[in-house]
Structures are given as C-alpha cells and as structure tokens.
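pinned: reference chain
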Amino acid sequence: MDEIVVFQGASYFRAVSQGQGYGLSARGLAVDTGEPKGEEFPFFRSFWIEKPTASADEVIIHALLDSPSATGAYRFRIRAGAPTITEIEATIYPRRALDRVGLAPLTSMFLFSPADTRLLDYRAAVHDSDGLAIVDGDGERVWRPLANPKRLQFSAFAVENPKGFGLVQRTRQAADFQDLEARYDKRPTGWIEPIGNWGHGSIVLIEIPTDEEIHDNIVAFWRPAAPLEAGKPFTIAYRLSWPDDAPANTVARVERTAIGQAIGPLRKQGFVQFVVDFTQTVATEDELPTAHLVASAGRVLPPVVQPNPATGGTRVSFLLDPKGIDLSELRLVLRRGESELSEVWLYRWIK
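pinned: its structure tokens
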C-alpha cells in the first residue's frame, strides 16, 4: 500500500509514480496568476469518488470547482504505475470574461542550479523542476531552463495545437543535489498531453523571485488566444503524467546549462560564459554540427562545438558581451545542413 495522489489546498493536486517522492503540483485552474491586482485561487468545493470494481486498475474522481470568477465540473481518471497517469476532463463556466486564465496549470519550485549561483548553499542545486519542455504542433522541441530571477518574469511561447509541455526534473542524480533529506533527484516531472486540438494560444511561464525553497515560485500553463466568454461553457481534456522525464525523442536533449564569468582578459570586459551540454553524440572531431545561436540584444562571439568525452554527448560554449543591455533572449540549436539535431535551447539572460 502506498500513496499515489493527493488533493489538498484550493484546486491543487499532485501525484507520484513508482520510486518517486512528492514534488511539483498541478491545479484545476489558474486565474490572474502573477498579475499586479493579485491572484484568484479557485478551489475544489466537493469531491465524489466512484467505487472501483475488484479488478479495476484505476480510480475515478469527480470534483466541483468554484471561485468568484468561474465554476467547473472536473473528472479525474487516475492510474498508478511507472508513470502514474491522470486523465482530466473539465467543463468550465466563467462568471466573467477570463482573459488572464491558465489551463492545465503546473506549479513548482526552483531555487538555484549551476546556471544561478547567487545563493550561498552547501548543496549543488535545489529545485523540484529544472526546465520547461515544449513540443509544438510541428513536433519541434524546446527546452527553457528555469531561473530564480531578481524580479518577476513572464515568458509566453506562442503555439498552435501543442503536442505536449511540462515542468521537467531532468537532473536525476543524488550527487547533483547533495541533499540527503529532500532527495530532489526523486521528484517527478509533470507532463501535459492535450486530448484533441487546443487551437492557437501560448504556453506561459512565470518565474517569481524567492530566497527559500519552501515557496513554489514557478508556474506554467496553457492560455488560449481568445478569452473564455462569460456564461459560455468551455471544455478541455488532457493527460497529465508524472514520469521522471518528458517522453523520449530522437534529437539530442539539453542535459546541463551553466553560466559564469569569462576567463582571461574578457572577464575584465564583463563577458558572460555559457556552456550548454547535450546528451547525445552529435559531434565528432571529423564532423561537427553547426551551432545556430541568436541573441535578441548584445553581442555573442562564435560558439564552440566539441564532443564531450566525459558524458558521451556534445558541448557548446559561447560568450555574451552584455555592454549596454539589461536583457537578452538567447536561442541555440544544433544543425547539420537543414536538419535540426537537438532541442531548441532558449534562455533569458538578465543583468
């Protein structure tokens, strides 16, 4: 006997798969999250549990959601395993037009990693999730490392009919954290797979500053392009699984992002060093792929691509000259000819 899912607090719920410990949470609905006027927290007012048969391998739970801005009927189909899967069907009835709504919301915690060394800590990293992964309607994969910013940050990724997105705990080794109590290496990933076509909208990422790991400071959700109309029912269905990582893919994935000061004379000039490690061997000494790197602001020096014999993968390193800028959106992908060999790595550098 073991726990597989818990519903507790507002419309929060979270689940675990075999061998995992509780980590990030999901919610029924997010309203005005991160807005200056303050967030509204819908809550599950009532639950109904269908009595399973003796041979059933699933549990079905119905829930009534309520808030000043909306009400809704939810159905959860829960199957434990590796991974545990929750299939969710919801019909939402807005009491007002909802233009700042978050559907299929996920909430997690990110304090620091090798890409953020502002905090002094005996541990190597502290986070429930380390990145936002997206598979768009065309199958392109995006990896956005999470950050603990100095000020509230919003990011929106426009997508037509997404195939999946989630907050991922890609770092899976205990040595990567050095925390014997929290065991962040055993925290689950939350992976959303839409059922049916969701149309046009954006996957929104909100990163909130925090100095302590007790606060959930990361939120990700789907926001449809059109507001939810007052009095008009809105239906949505999706599969939320709780694996160790996002579903496997054929392209090289980002394994690690590290940032630091440049070495040598460029350090005095304020250059920032970036190192991005990919898992698969897409580079050899005889045939190196091309690193396509774009910065929205600032100047980047040509990236260096090389095999990483320590991991069996590929490393890309580059320098950013941040003179005169406060923010730069960085985009990196490995290619050979016109073929993309890796996920698209996105990063927001902030002064």
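why pinned: The longest helix spans residues 265-268. The mean pLDDT is 94.
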